[in-house]
């Protein structure tokens, strides 16, 4: 899954990913020269945590949390600082190498991993710490509010395309925060390849086209969202936005 994401990372960033791939291979080869994978799965999990968070010294970037360089995989690998999204892909890669079944679960707001051991083990890739189910629910409540409760759907394992979408969405949000609208637009276009009819992604793409002074295309995307989601509160705001855009002089691109 990490290599598939690296291929997308290369397309979106314009930076080749071969160096990152070689680095991952070298790290794993060097680890095998010095260690033997444990026969017990629980011990292999401890080896995984030690490898990623101690020997390689990866960590979540608390000091510059929203920086897009934490989400781009090549810069995450180079700087060894990431987000829960990028670090989850890295941990999943080494978990596969250590023959540790690992899922990304459907928790909104952050990535949480589940290792399929004798008893399911939940894991925060941002902190490198194991989680109890109670702590997983607290993460959910931090995102959704105190009334939120953990359900079976939150513990559902995401399919690979869903994981890609979640990582890409995190990258898009980071780029928008930095006013990197052209980069964010490339990510939005990639997200629409996964879900071509997603009205919310069309709305987001319309916003990005608007920031880039492409009013006609923005209007098209906004109208699509209004047609598909007429009862969404945002629809009325977009109708006002469309009228404003229609009054602006056209910009040639």
From TrEMBL:
Residues of the Protein SirB1 N-terminal domain: 37-168
Pfam family of the protein (one): TPR_9
Alphabetized SUPFAM superfamilies for the sequence: TPR-like
Family, as annotated: Belongs to the UPF0162 family.
Name recorded for this polypeptide: Tetratricopeptide repeat protein
Organism: Celerinatantimonas yamalensis
Lineage start: Bacteria, Pseudomonadati, Pseudomonadota, Gammaproteobacteria, Celerinatantimonadaceae
């Amino acid at each position: 899954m990490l290599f598939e994401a690296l291929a997308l990372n290369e397309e979106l960033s314009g930076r080749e990913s071969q160096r990152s791939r070689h680095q991952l291979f070298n790290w794993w080869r060097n680890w095998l020269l010095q260690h033997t994978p444990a026969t017990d799965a629980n011990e292999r999990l401890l080896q995984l945590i030690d490898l990623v968070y101690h020997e390689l010294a990866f960590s979540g970037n608390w000091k510059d949390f929203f920086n897009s360089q934490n989400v781009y995989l090549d810069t995450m690998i180079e700087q060894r600082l990431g987000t829960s999204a990028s670090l989850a892909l890295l941990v999943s890669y080494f978990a596969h190498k250590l023959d540790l079944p690992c899922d990304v679960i459907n928790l909104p707001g952050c990535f949480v991993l589940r290792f399929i051991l004798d008893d399911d083990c939940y894991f925060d890739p941002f902190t490198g710490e194991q989680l109890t189910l109670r702590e997983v629910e607290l993460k959910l409540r931090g995102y959704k509010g105190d009334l939120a409760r953990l359900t079976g759907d939150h513990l559902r394992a995401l399919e690979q395309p869903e994981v890609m979408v979640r990582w890409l969405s995190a990258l898009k949000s980071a780029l928008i925060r930095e006013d990197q609208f052209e980069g964010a637009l490339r990510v939005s276009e990639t997200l629409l390849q996964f879900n071509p009819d997603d009205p919310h992604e069309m709305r987001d793409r319309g916003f990005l086209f608007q920031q880039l002074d492409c009013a006609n295309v923005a209007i098209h995307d906004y109208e699509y969202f209004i047609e598909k989601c007429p009862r969404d509160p945002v629809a009325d705001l977009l109708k006002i936005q469309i009228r404003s855009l229609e009054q602006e002089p056209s910009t040639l691109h």
